[in-house]
Automatic annotation (TrEMBL):
Keywords: DNA-binding, Metal-binding, Nucleus, Repeat, Zinc, Zinc-finger
Source organism: Branchiostoma floridae (Florida lancelet)
A Pfam cross-reference name: zf-C2H2
Region described as Disordered: 1-63
TM helices/strands, residue ranges: none
Entry keyword annotation includes Repeat: yes
Protein's name in the database: Zinc finger protein 525-like
Entry GO CC: nucleus
The C2H2-type domain, residue ranges: 75-102, 103-130, 131-158, 159-187, 188-215, 216-243, 244-271, 272-299, 297-324
Domain of life: Eukaryota
Main location as per UniProt: nucleus
Entry's Gene Ontology molecular function annotations: DNA binding; DNA-binding transcription factor activity, RNA polymerase II-specific; zinc ion binding
Length: 350
């Protein structure tokens, strides 16, 4: 075998450090275990591996010598570049492409690709939240969510973008960043309006704008919303807390997102760009409004365009109204005209 072949083969090998041979054998044996309920593979530390950054070395102190051996990642996914030494892990990974979800909830229609995901879901039925944050009292049904939550307090962001300065606390956020900012891929599309996004979670949230589903409920009033972040901002209104302050002008707000938006008034940053002209905006809602100028409502008589159908309706009356007597396209103008007849002067200087 020539040198090139050797180098290629070594790319599929991963070096692993173990404390001793006996400590590893049990883990390897359980990797291919079958669960007691059927022929679905045992999944070990499900959900944790997929969202943990690669470690540079063992941090646990021990007097036992570390042993080194090489794992052959012989099982390769035919859909992507994923490789693993375990046939079981490859089987689980493949479900991301096939959409297979063999684990079914017996209390609702929920299904999952991994048993641990189903276990976490079942806790939503029981209401049990056995894992608690010591900093703020946040409770969750599983240890993995708690470890992710704790990074909000520590500020740890172990996932680094190799193309810019972005870093994230969770791998899923880095994946979304890579797709939306660098590759430009948006494989998930809404069948109702053509909206496209880089990740499935964003599409799920978007679909609620069509279905009207608002699963996040305020326990202090009748407010409900389709986004958890919106509920968090709303709850801050009840508490009256405004912990986020602008260092430039003293503006305070209940959430970090609003502060980030506010800071653009000082920096002049306009990250939302129109792909049909040179327009840019500091806020996405402004860009959305602008886009309708390219695709929005138009008057057939004079070519007037507007982003709002109600504005077009008011405008159209200018072409159709009878000019022999006073008339107005806008009700407030008519109210002012009537006041000339009645002599009413509702607006007085204080």
């Amino acid at each position: 075998m020539d040198r090139t072949s050797n180098e290629t083969a070594m790319d599929d090998l991963t070096t692993v450090y173990l404390l001793d041979e006996t400590s590893s054998s049990g883990e390897l044996d359980t990797e291919e275990r079958q669960n007691e309920e059927g022929d679905l593979p045992y999944e070990g530390t499900c959900g944790v591996e997929s969202d943990q950054p690669p470690t540079q070395g063992r941090t646990e102190q021990t007097d036992r010598p570390a042993l080194k051996y090489t794992v052959d990642k012989q099982y390769a996914c035919v859909e992507c570049d994923y490789r693993t030494a375990s046939k079981t892990k490859l089987s689980i990974h493949t479900r991301k492409h096939t959409g297979e979800k063999p684990y079914k909830c017996n209390q609702c229609k929920y299904s999952a690709a991994q048993k641990c995901t189903l276990d976490r879901h079942m806790a939503t039925h029981t209401g049990e939240k056995s894992f608690m944050c010591g900093e703020c009292g946040y409770g969750t049904t599983n240890r993995f969510n708690l470890s992710m939550h704790v990074r909000k307090h520590t500020g740890e962001k172990p996932y680094k973008c190799d193309q810019c300065d972005y870093s994230a606390a969770r791998k899923v956020h880095l994946d979304g960043h890579m797709t939306s900012k660098h590759t430009g891929e948006k494989p998930y599309m809404c069948g109702e309006c053509g909206y496209r996004t880089a990740n499935r979670a964003s599409l799920t949230v978007h679909m609620r704008t069509h279905t009207g589903v608002k699963p996040y409920k305020c326990d202090q009033c009748e407010y409900s919303t389709g986004r958890k972040s919106n509920l968090n901002r709303h709850m801050a209104n009840h508490k009256g807390e405004k912990p986020f302050m602008c260092g430039e002008c003293g503006y305070r707000t209940a959430n970090r997102y609003d502060l980030s938006r506010h800071m653009r008034t000082h920096t002049g940053e306009k990250p939302y760009k129109c792909d049909q002209c040179e327009y840019s905006a500091a806020h996405k809602v402004s860009l959305d409004h602008h886009i309708t100028k390219h695709t929005g409502e138009m008057c057939d008589e004079c070519g007037y365009r507007t982003a709002d159908r109600s504005h077009l309706s008011v405008h159209t009356r200018r072409h159709t109204s009878d000019q022999s007597d006073y008339s107005s396209a806008v009700k407030s103008n008519l109210d002012l005209h009537i006041a000339n007849h009645t002599g009413e002067k509702p607006h007085t200087c204080g």
